[in-house]
Design brief:
alpha/beta; Rossmann fold; 2 domains; five-stranded parallel beta sheet; binds 1-O-phosphono-beta-D-fructopyranose; SIS_dom_sf; GlmS/FrlB_SIS; isomerase activity; repeat; Sugar isomerase
Amino acid sequence: AYVDAEIASQPDCWREAAHLAPTVTDRLPRPGERVAVVGCGTSWFMAAAYAARREAAGQGETDAFQASEFPAGRRYDRLIAITRSGTTTEVTELLAALDGQVRTTVIAGDPDSPATRIADDAVLLPFADERSVVQTRFATTALALLRAHLGDNVSALAADAEVAVRAPLPLDPTRVEQATFLGRGWTVGLAQEAALKCREAALFWAEAYPAMDYRHGPISIAAPGRLVWAFGEIPDGLAEDVAATGAAFVHSRTNGCRTVLGRWAAGRNPVDPMADLILAQRFAVALATSRGLDPDAPRHLSRSVVL
Ligand code: F1P
């Protein structure tokens, strides 16, 4: 499957993004600016992760929207659109509608696309573009670039990514009938992305929630043979609550329950949650294969949705 090679190339792509970031600062948000970040599908989840992280870093008010749900009339200093293809209709229509009203930057994989032509500025990541329908490395590379711009040490992330592309999977995909991914703050977007990978690549029942909200209803699904996989910081008691249901619990930082990356990345614990996402991408591909599906040919999907 060519998605395997794309997943494995993420450490190199993240390093490339780290080199690129200082050369494109003029096209990315300045501290204090009010920023909207938009995308569709995977690209929206990356937008949500970046928005939460920029706010938490004290860099300014940052809102994420699916491109179709941008509130007309809302004023921002800058709008960032994330789109691998640059052809997604909701994104190009929004950029056109906002022309002249807000400074726009598109982060795209394809260097020559409708979105890059309409936006005021473009940050191009052709080295992270993909053949696959199911996005993996473009999404994480766009987020790595935005994180580098926020001051995160992306070289350290790439080292964690090296571990995640080689590490054994936390559990056998043939032994799981359902998965729920959890996150907190910026990792909610990563959890949503992990669940989407399972649905897209493997037609597998997967959900995602903020970890705190999970106990307000969704935990009723947890049962033996099902999986709960948490990204980043988790609330006190969550691991124990999940364990009491009989579901498998996967978390890179928990001792006592099933630990994932922390076990292999001794000396670099906690590992970055984006490395966990790589492991979840690989889990989704393994699920697809175990179900007799071709992860390169997902049902009902095309590389970009053009209406
Ligand atoms: C966005 C997207 C993908 C998804 C699917 C349809 O594309 O929703 O995330 O996997 O294949 O398109 P883009 O705007 O980032 O090109």
